[in-house]
Amino acid sequence: MTSSTRIILVRHGRSTYNDQGRYQGSSNHALLTQKGIETACQVGQSLRHVPIHAVYSSPLRRVTQTTDTILRELGTGPKALSIDENLREIDLSNWEGLSYQHVKEQFAEDYRCWQEQPHEFELTRLQAQTRGSTAAVTEVKYYPVRSLYQRAQQFWQTVLTQHAGQTVLVVSHGGTNHALISTALGLTPEHHHRLQQSNCGVSILEFTNWQVQIQQLNCTASIKETLPKLKAGKQGLQLLLVAEEALSKDRAHTLADRLAAIAPNFCLASREDLARKLLQRCPTTLQLATTKASFLLDWQQSLEQSVRHQSKLITGIAIAPTRSIQTLLMQTLGGQAQNSSQIRVESGKLSVVHYPSAHRPVVQAINF
């Protein structure tokens, strides 16, 4: 029987730069806030039952602080800890330390490229060069997102070779984890920004013979979030996806409680009986029925246009066949429909896609 390698990805806890709204990149000035330490503790506690064979960490302080905190909470003896330079955050050169708003206003063209064409996003950095006995510092152009994805691929080459059949904890950064997930799925830098990595969000990937399946993406349940916090603005549509198959009575009851806390604005489903059961405690939710099992993919064609000018946030739930949900999630990430089995969709759990009014869609969570 072929053994699988399980990778648990965790983004660092909230940092001082996160609080200040500043770009961090590969700079090493940010530290964990008290909130960041507390949530790292919660992640460690949630992983106590997991037999972890090895741990990899970025060398930057906000991550090493998170890693140390998680390891203290695991409390199951020493782990093999490796500090890996490939796990550094994206190198953002002169943006590092600047506020998001300042960059958006003062580097408007570069910012637009960063958001809309990340694979073409270009910066300059200082680089020392020696010619004979003369040393000089020159400006060198580079592509930050492409470089990040190259490091992610190098990391996979090392870890998957050395830890076959094991469970590995990887603690890193939002951008780095994004690149790790994307390269594992075979996605290119063109589709950067299409998935979310929250502070202390947990993602789980399973590799079998170098073939990957996402089992969980950006789950923040261990830090007591009802849903991952929105990062692309509180506008547009936040769409909750629920698989209609094999939903047991206990799971339906638990999910109904969660939906009561969320109170979605509307629900669209081809199974009216299941919609009524899940929304029995949501009296204000508008329930819409459809006779087409393929409604989700048909609806997807016009969804982005319909929310483009939405000035507030609407939350909806779609109860649909597993295969339709897998396809929608894969296409939103930038992948092909034929590869949708690389995403696992579990019964009774939520997957979340945010359609902002002025941004490409973002997969916020899978199997939350």
Parts with pLDDT < 50 across at least 5 consecutive residues: none
CATH fold name of the largest domain: Rossmann fold
Q: Roughly how many Å apart are the termini?
A: 29 Å
Q: Look at the helices and sheets and give the structural class.
A: alpha/beta
CATH class of the largest domain: Alpha Beta
What is the helix content? 25-40%
What is the C-alpha radius of gyration, as a whole number of Å? 21 Å
**CATH H-tier superfamily of the largest domain:** Phosphoglycerate mutase-like
Strand order of the largest sheet: 3-2-6-1-7-8
Task: State which percent range the strand residues make up.
Answer: 15-25%
Based on Cα principal axes, name the global outline.
Answer: globular
SSE layout:
Blueprint: E1 5-11, H1 16-20, H2 34-46, E2 54-57, H3 61-74, E3 80-83, H4 100-106, H5 108-116, E4 123-131, E5 134-142, H6 144-162, E6 167-172, H7 174-185, E7 202-208, E8 211-219, E9 236-243, H8 249-262, E10 266-269, H9 272-278, E11 286-289, H10 295-306, E12 313-320, H11 322-333, E13 351-355, E14 362-365
Parallel strand pairs: 1-6, 2-3, 2-6, 9-12, 10-11, 10-12
Antiparallel strand pairs: 1-7, 4-5, 7-8, 9-13, 13-14
Helix pairs in contact: 2-3, 4-5, 6-7
Please provide a written account of the structure.
- This protein has 368 residues and is an alpha/beta fold.
- The protein has two domains: 5-97 and 147-221, Rossmann fold; 226-365, Phosphoglycerate mutase-like (Rossmann fold, 3-Layer(aba) Sandwich), CATH 3.40.50.
- Helices cover 34% and strands 24% of the residues.
- The protein contains eleven helices and 14 strands.
- The strands form three sheets. The chain has a six-stranded mixed sheet. A six-stranded mixed sheet has the order 11-10-12-9-13-14, with helices on both faces.
- Helix 3 (61-74) links the parallel strand 2 and strand 3 (80-83).
- Helix 2 crosses helix 3, helix 4 (100-106) packs across helix 5 and helix 6 crosses helix 7.
- The mean pLDDT is 92.
